[in-house]
Write a structure and sequence with these properties.
This protein is an alpha/beta fold. It has one domain: 3-Layer(aba) Sandwich (UDP-N-acetylmuramoyl-L-alanine:D-glutamate ligase). The chain has helices at 30-42, 58-69, 112-118, 135-139, 143-158, 177-190, 198-204, 210-218, 259-272, 277-291, 301-307; strands at 3-7, 11-16, 23-28, 47-54, 77-79, 87-92, 98-103, 130-134, 162-166, 193-194, 224-227, 234-238, 241-245. The strands form two sheets. The chain has a nine-stranded mixed beta sheet with strand order 5-4-1-8-9-10-11-12-13, with helices on both faces. The protein has a four-stranded mixed beta sheet with strand order 3-2-6-7. Helix 1 (30-42) packs across helix 9, helix 5 runs parallel beside helix 6 and helix 9 runs antiparallel to helix 10 (277-291). The longest helix is centred in the middle third of the chain and has 16 residues, at 143-158. The radius of gyration is 18 Å and the shape is globular. It starts with a strand and ends in a 5-residue tail after the last helix. The mean pLDDT is 94.
């Protein structure tokens, strides 16, 4: 059975629930969201685990309950006495586009590498077949911790683990664009599958098009490149062979939060189930299309199940 390990941060999410300014509380984080959607798509045909650090407070315990309800394995979710989960607020405009306010400077997830190194179970990660992390997963780590993180990834890859990376560039999380570039270049060098967005590379590399991004990544020898461009076409490159896939836009957009995360979840689910790259992109677009028609990063299970046919 495939075992996918999602590495990153999950935060407390506050999203506006009505015009009175009242907020609904939930949990979200880019790789965590992706993990939830993978599990919903693959059900019992794959194991999905989340590798992160949370606090020992009541809110952190609520996340554990959510993970249990989504059947996400919490074996790799460490608990920290001194720090708690980060928090963010979603602000949504009349077009469904969102901006965020964050409180995450002292989040427990920033201590992830320390907890990985303290794990005494030498067989803990042997069952993992795919690792997924993002630019946000990297941005919250200190320079010293990044060195140890790369060693962890290299070790897992040398043991046959597939490495998947989505740059998901957030400038505010990095001390400088060059620091982000250095980290992304290292991640690309270790990845088998990459899922960049056009905006990631426009903002960081000044790449003008998906084709230019593809050329940059193909030169690194990455075998499977999926370049997302919002609700427009997706450019895929498999062993250097490119194909453009048109996406039918969703007409009733409510909230674009987690659109890319949902796409990633749908894509990785479809690939794990044996679908072609092209079929996986189409399935992923349907998953993302479902998610952006609802508020919040993780849509209600009933709504998701009604719209998306599982792959199991």
């Amino acid at each position: 059975m495939p075992h996918l390990l999602m590495i990153g941060e999950c935060m407390i999410e506050l999203s506006q629930s009505n015009e009175l300014g009242e907020y609904k509380q939930s949990f979200a984080g880019d790789v965590f969201n992706t993990g939830v959607y993978i599990k919903r798509c693959l059900k019992e045909s794959a194991q999905v685990s989340f590798l992160s650090v949370i606090g020992e407070d009541k809110m952190s315990s609520q996340l554990l309950s959510l993970m249990a309800s989504e059947e996400i394995n919490s074996r790799y979710l460490y608990r920290c006495k001194s720090n708690k989960m980060g928090l963010y607020i979603i602000n949504i405009d009349q077009y469904g586009e969102r901006t965020f306010d964050y409180w995450r400077e002292n989040s427990a997830a920033r201590h992830l590498v320390k907890f990985i190194k303290k794990d005494t179970d030498k067989t803990a990660f042997r069952s993992v077949t795919t690792i997924f992390f993002s630019g946000i997963s990297l941005a919250i780590l200190s320079p010293d911790d990044l060195v140890n993180f790369w060693e962890f990834i290299e070790c897992r890859r040398s043991n046959g683990c597939q490495i998947v990376f989505d740059p998901n560039y957030r400038p505010a999380l990095w001390s400088s664009p060059n620091k982000a570039k250095d980290a992304f270049e290292m991640a690309y060098s270790l990845s088998d599958v990459v899922l960049p967005g056009v905006d990631d590379h426009k903002n960081l590399y000044n790449h003008k098009s998906a084709a230019e991004i593809a050329s940059h990544l193909e030169a690194k020898g990455i075998g499977e490149i999926i370049i997302k461009n919002g609700d427009l076409e997706v450019l895929i490159s498999v062993e250097g062979r490119r194909t453009q896939i048109d996406i039918i836009p969703v007409t009733e957009v409510v909230d674009t939060t987690s659109a890319g995360d949902a796409f990633n979840g749908g894509y990785l689910s479809a690939r794990q189930s044996g679908k072609s790259v092209k079929s996986s992109v189409i399935y992923a677009a349907n998953v993302a299309g479902c998610v952006i028609q609802h508020k919040g990063a993780i849509v209600p299970k009933a709504c998701f199940s009604k719209a998306i046919i599982p792959l199991a």
